[in-house]
Every structure is written in structure tokens, then in C-alpha cells.
Predict the 3D structure of the following.
Amino acid sequence: MNMYLICLTLIILNRNWKKAAAVLQTVGGPVREWTMVRKKWRDLASKAKAYKAPKTGGGPPVLEDPLYEKVLGVLAKEVVCGILSEDDMASSQETICSDESEYASKPTPSVPSPVEQTHHR
């Protein structure tokens, strides 16, 4: 990928995080810089993925967490389940992203190209 596209992508991503911070503030959320909104989202997504990861050992079963379930519903399947080769998928015993899983059947959200975003203003 050339440097121009990388810079353009970063500019668009930062602009979208700024918009997200502004929207959160308008609906009564706390006043936060866009960088803090991005960090909060990344932390929440990380915790949601850990919540859904297979557990090892004993202990009580994990109770369903509606917030984490909503976050996992927004994330792309590859983010939640990882990218597996066909060999890995065939030998995988995990049920988190089996064909019956809601995360496995969810399509990966498309990201509009910079050109599409420019024309939709």
C-alpha cells in the first residue's frame, strides 16, 4: 500500500473517531477527546473478545454479558474468531465460531472507500 493511501486512511479514521466522540457528547455521554473514545472502544472490544475466548480449567461458567454480546455483534467475525486456514478450521474443536455460531454467520462489515465517503456528504 502506498504512503498516500495509508495517510488518507488514517485521516479518515481519525475524522470518524472525532465524529463518534461528538455524537457521544450530544446524546449525553461524558466529554472525552476522540483519542480517549477510541481507547475506550479498543479496551471494551478487547474485554469482549476475552469474555468469549475459550476458557481452560475449572471454575464457574461465565454468565452472559449483554454489553459484551452487543460489542461482539458489531465486530467482524475475523476479529472475534481470528483468521483460520482451511486445515485449521477442519481440525478446530472450538465452538465459538462454528457454523452454528452467530459470529460465524455475521458478514464482515464493509468499509466505504474514501471516494464513497466524499460523495455521501
Q: What stands out?
A: The helical segments are 3-26, 34-52, 66-74, 77-81, 86-91, 102-105, 114-119.
